[in-house]
Amino acid sequence: MLVARVLLALALLGGLVSAGYHIYQRLPADSASITSDYNAPLSGTRVVVRNTIRNATLHSPIELYHFDLAAARREFDESPRLAKRFDDFLARRMHDVLPLKAEVTNDGTASTLLTRGDWWLRATAQLDSGEEIEWRLPLTISTRDQAIDLSYENSYERTKKF
Question: What pTM, to 2 d.p., does this model score?
Answer without folding.
Answer: 0.63
